[in-house]
Specification:
single chain; about 300 residues; alpha/beta; UDP-N-acetylmuramoyl-L-alanine:D-glutamate ligase; 9-stranded mixed beta sheet; 4-stranded mixed beta sheet; 11 helices
């Protein structure tokens, strides 16, 4: 494992989720949790977030067991962040029933001194004001990837502009990108976002794969033909954690490796959706990750078209 460090900043939460395959209450969730666990398969990972006094000790033990450093995790007076929602048979669409910010109303992220300089940083979905506070604490990060959501696009658009100017890659789903750039065309929206200052745009398309746009190339990653699809909660964060964890492990930001990183992210997301919460990632083995990466490579490969066939 590389000595490079990944810092993940986001929410730590308790979720109540209902899908066509069942319902689970008060299960481990949060953007920082999913991303950190996925990243930990590849790199030394530091989780920065907050939980309340009611956060179960068993969940803390699980994160420690994954080798995730919790120096930046604050246990605050009050209740842990909670989200409840459901999915119908189109599981690309989450239906939120309730969001309780709780201790995140007063949360101020503090980056441990040991990882302020030269780390790989993932800013998971959070208030852009908090994302900027984190960026102000970092010194010469090797890579910054940031996520957002429609709520912040609508309510804190100007602050989000400032985040975009200071990151390397923005991570959005296709609906969020269209909303933010005010265009129905995804490639045009990505080009507009690149013009704002981001070096790259990664578009999450759920079961339809992912897209990577930079100023010099673009890449379309296929979706995995999922035969087991139980709960998509956290899939986007698992994608991001796998991507940045792999980039930190390899310390290679070249075009070919960026393409591999997008596939690695897709691999981690494809495992995440196979069970509720982090249950599938808890038992995931490194050899399974390698095998599924090879599956992605095989089913998306094809030969060049022969000019002779056009005779």
């Amino acid at each position: 494992m590389s000595d490079a460090k990944v810092v993940v900043v986001g929410t730590i939460g308790l979720d109540t989720v209902r899908t066509p395959f069942g319902e689970k209450k008060e299960i481990l969730g949060g953007s920082a949790v999913y991303a950190s666990v996925a990243s930990s398969f590849f790199s030394n990972t530091f989780l920065v977030g907050a939980a309340g006094k009611d956060f179960p000790a068993t969940y803390v033990d699980f994160l420690k067991g994954r080798g995730i450093a919790l120096d930046g995790m604050q246990i605050l007076e009050g209740q842990t962040f909670r989200w409840s929602g459901y999915y119908e048979y189109d599981m690309n669409q989450a239906h939120t029933l309730d969001t309780q910010l709780n201790i995140y109303r007063s949360f101020s992220p503090s980056i441990p001194d040991a990882v302020k300089k030269g780390s790989y940083l993932f800013l998971a979905n959070l208030d852009p004001e908090l994302q900027l506070k984190v960026l102000d604490q970092m010194v010469e990060p090797k890579l910054v990837v940031a996520d957002t959501m429609n709520y912040w696009i609508s309510s804190k658009r100007e602050l989000l502009h400032e985040v975009v100017k200071r990151v390397d890659f923005m991570l959005m789903n296709d609906a969020e990108l269209r909303q933010y750039m005010e265009t129905p065309n995804v490639p045009q929206a990505a080009a507009k976002l690149l013009a704002m200052g981001a070096k790259g745009v990664i578009v999450k398309k759920g079961e339809h794969g992912a897209l990577l746009f930079t100023k010099s190339f673009h890449f379309s990653a296929p979706s995995y033909p999922q035969d087991k699809f139980v709960d998509p909660t956290g899939a986007g964060d698992s994608f991001a954690g796998g991507l940045i964890g792999y980039l930190a492990k390899t310390e290679d930001l070249g075009e070919d490796n960026l393409r591999k990183a997008v596939i690695i992210g897709s691999v981690m997301a494809s495992f995440n959706v196979e069970d509720f919460s982090l249950e599938r990632l808890k038992i995931l083995k490194q050899k399974e990750v390698v095998h599924r990466f090879e599956e992605f490579r095989r089913f998306s490969a094809f030969e060049a078209l022969s000019v002779a066939h056009w005779g």
